[in-house]
Model the fold of this input.
Amino acid sequence: MSNKPQTSRTLAELHTHSIASDGQYAPEVVAGRCAELGVKVWSLTDHDTLDGCLEAAAAAKSHNITFIPGVEVSAREGVSIHVLGYGLDPENDELSSFFAERKELRETRMERMILATRAAGYDVSIEEVAKIAKGGAMARPHLARALVQKGVMQSVQEVFDELLAEGKPGYVASPYMSVPEAIDLIHQFGGVAILAHPAHYGKDAEIPKWIQRDALDGIEVQHPRHGTSDVERYTKIADSFGVLKTASSDFHGEAVAPERELGVTHVPDDWLDALRERLAI
Done:
């Protein structure tokens, strides 16, 4: 038996989504599920919006869960890249206006994707997608779910693989900001910037530059789509530069991403404590 001490961990959900963007559930529902599962720390990180954070904060408080307001900012460096922002104020008017403009860009993009999808032979309407989005910013998972509901394909993943992934007939690029601009936006409003699921991008060579030049605060080391080698690689990068490390489920809901389960991410306490210290919570 090994005498190596076990790392203390806390059940935390630092990267989740709701109907404010492309998640399946309302913020208060996600909060309730977190409570049922014993989650101690939770952050709602919807895409390019803080709209669900006030509802989430109130629900978290009622369940005695520590809540961290968050957002997942969409950027682009040849491929789509996401930067998580923690500790932002959902009541900041300037920030809210910025994300409202981003929502309009997403809606214009969705209109173009629906035209491309119809041109590819799949009958779907903006009204069907909007019904699934439930007032949130319409995104590709909403379009994918609409097509699954119509029986066009069997799963959201199949829709992405065949139609909505980059390079596929229904994909439309969005005019996102750069990664440095996303980091700067988060810092400008007092937040902490963490690179989300870096194994998705094939941009490992850029990470040191984002840390040293642009002051990226940390890396999401553990993610459902990160293998053991990915976790080891990003842990090493984060430690070599002395930046924060996080872990997540990236929960969206069973109908959107069934492989990303809520309440299974046990974050090392030293990682979580370092993040909370930076956020002063």
About this structure: The chain has ten helices and eight strands. The mean pLDDT is 93. Residues 19 and 26 are 5 Å apart (CA to CA).
